Amino acid sequence: MTAQIAYADVEEGTQLPLRTFPVDRARLVRYAGASGDFNPIHWNERFAKEVGLPDVIAHGMFTMAEAARVITDWTGDPGALLEYGVRFTKPVVVPDDGEGAVIEVAAKVAKKLDDQARTVQVDLTVTSAGTKVLGMSRAVVALA
Length: 144
Prior knowledge:
single chain; alpha+beta; 3 helices; elongated
């Protein structure tokens, strides 16, 4: 695949489409099965509270992956995501209330890095319930 977004068509400050991702307990259990991360803080409310958490929390890597979908959906090519890093700042708390939580992701092209390689730096702002859950969330993306 090749990215569907052309390097020439973006400028520094170009906003990617704002996205929201719902998170409920069932999704966390499915992720635990797929990832092999069965830590009870991600599915057992009693255990999560016993260790000092407000409730069950989403896996950090799950949160990171959902945020990356903003980039891969925008480019149309998962292979266009060359580098990606975050700092985990706060957990995504997932109550068992029938609604769960929502991860909100805003992203923009922060820099055009290399005209020849057609790469850009994309900065992401990732929040849940009004709280920033990933800090220093940055990606390097190759465009068409």
